[in-house]
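> call design_seq(struct)
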């Protein structure tokens, strides 16, 4: 009964995440078009930059949808560990899109500062920026929830991108207030600061995707937890080594443990099955488990 409840919860999260991604595409398309139009009409380089961020989020949402869809494909003969790493590839692609668009905006903002062609934005820019922050905050909330519940790297990265949009939109709103106080050079400066923040966050997300693609070991705290769980199983004398890597949503474990050399092969197999069942009952994200039995000295 407990397992069935978990499956229902996961199915509900899958549905919620899917709806959030599609709603995100519609919302970000609206925000991108609205911001770019108001940004050009209201002469706000910062709002144009924020609109470009929303436009990149549209592409990232599409990439995430494709990544999540194909990562769920079951393992087969060609890919015995499944297709989970597609999510890390999606994470790398969406981060690269953000970085390229941001670099272009930084260059144009520096050109404005060099030429000193400053303008005062229309007040409507302020209200568009606040609206954008609110919508992006809602998308972040549901994307973050889906990413945590499904243990999806691409959904988590998508949530972080929307958090970036919240911050960038608020920076735009602050810029409008400051420029109306007479500091006209603030708009391109805020655009540069906004881009620096986006770059910093995007590089972090990119690094996370690259680490997942090259099978980086999971944190020591997680390994220690798994080691303690295995050591608590009856029949396990000692846990010599635990290695863990994430393949999309699932965690793959390699465990080396010592057992009594005098027990039968059937008993050793029973201990291995108990270890696998126990670990999966404690962490629903654990997938493939490889166990090496070593006779205790």
């Amino acid at each position: 009964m407990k397992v069935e409840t978990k499956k229902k919860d996961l199915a509900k999260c899958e549905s919620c995440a899917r709806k959030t991604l599609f709603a995100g595409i519609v919302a970000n398309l609206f925000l991108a078009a609205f911001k770019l139009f108001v940004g050009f009409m209201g002469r706000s380089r910062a709002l144009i930059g924020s609109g470009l961020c929303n436009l990149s989020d549209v592409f990232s949402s599409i990439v995430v949808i494709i990544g999540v869809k194909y990562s769920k494909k079951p393992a087969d003969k060609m890919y015995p560990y499944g297709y989970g790493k597609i999510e890390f590839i999606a994470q790398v692609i969406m981060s690269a899109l953000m970085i390229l668009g941001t670099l272009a905006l930084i260059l144009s903002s520096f050109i404005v500062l060099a030429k000193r062609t400053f303008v005062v934005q229309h007040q409507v820019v302020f209200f568009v920026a606040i609206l954008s922050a609110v919508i992006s905050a809602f998308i972040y909330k549901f994307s973050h929830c889906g990413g945590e519940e499904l243990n999806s790297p691409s959904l988590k990265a998508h949530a972080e991108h929307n958090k970036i949009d919240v911050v960038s939109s608020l920076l735009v709103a602050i810029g409008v207030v400051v420029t109306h106080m007479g500091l006209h050079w603030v708009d391109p400066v805020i655009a540069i600061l906004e881009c620096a923040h986006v770059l910093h966050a995007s590089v972090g997300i990119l690094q996370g995707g690259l680490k997942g693609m090259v099978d980086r070991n999971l944190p020591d705290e997680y390994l220690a937890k798994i080691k303690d769980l295995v050591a608590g199983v009856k029949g396990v004398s000692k846990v010599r080594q635990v290695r863990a890597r994430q393949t999309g949503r699932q965690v793959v474990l390699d465990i080396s443990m010592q057992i009594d050399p005098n027990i039968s092969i059937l008993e050793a197999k029973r201990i291995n099955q108990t270890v696998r069942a126990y670990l999966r009952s404690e962490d629903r994200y654990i997938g493939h488990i490889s166990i090496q039995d070593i006779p205790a000295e």
